[in-house]
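Much of the work behind modern protein science is quiet bookkeeping, done one molecule at a time. The protein below has been through that process, and both of its lines are reproduced in full.
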Amino acid sequence: FDEFNRINLEVLSVVAQQVLEIQLAVKNKVKTFFFEGSEIPLRPSCNAFITMNPGYAGRSELPDNLKALFRTVAMMVPDYGMISEIMLYSNGYLQATDCARKIVTTYKLCSEQLSSQDHYDYGMRAVMAVLRAAANMKRKYTDEDEFVLMLRSIVDVNLCKFLSHDVPLFNGIVSDLFPGVDLPPVDYKNLNDSMKVMCTEFNLQEHEYFFLKITQLYEMIIVRHGLMVVGLPFSGKTGCLKVLGGALTDLNKKGLNSELNVKTRILNPKSVTMGQLYGENDKSTQEWKDGVLAVHFRQLASDQTLDRKWMILDGPVDAIWIE
């Protein structure tokens, strides 16, 4: 069971009783036992394993009767350098050792020098995003200098999430780690042209910074399955998504950049209850009813076309619904 302590405290107490019943049955070496009113066969090798992150928002502390049923296993911090090196070698990088060292050092210096923000992440997820971007770059530009590809990957994945006062510090860190490496500008002419068309259609102003943010959002979509667009109200978050979706669809119609049509489903997660969002058991009939998110997700998943499918949860973020 992953992230076990996200479950409510009342439910955890019930789970403790259920786990105890199973453990007692295993201890007594019985073939069958009664569980929740039903007699079921027992495998003597059955066991329960849980993972949890204590002290996070939206997490519960495990009750003592449940703690007593599990044995703690301490985890060590993974060697980011070795993991990065192996991943880079497997994707065809000949200078994988040096590139891996630069990734790890970049994140180490960022964590020490940049401001502390809730959305800054320098852990394994961030490293993997850079490695995925680097792998895509290597496949696309096989003859390009590997340090240029690595610098491009680090900048593309990280620059868009830094606040304005941290950007110069980040640029200083990467320029020190990649001396003499200049990034060639990426050709986004077709995308920019389509974005201008969409701005006219949505009656939005064509602003250089707005276009920069849309381009960064596009680069992030390429390397991540899911992402979060954060900012103050009326800062242009929804505008970015609408213009980018429209621009990619426009490119698809024109047959440019091998882009795909974009289908979007938008819902506000705070406008409905948790049960209505994810699904719940009907209290009177005990029948399962799918939530709004589950219905939309299933419809998009069953769509056999190659279109991009965007499930947009447009609303305030809190630890309860997002987890």
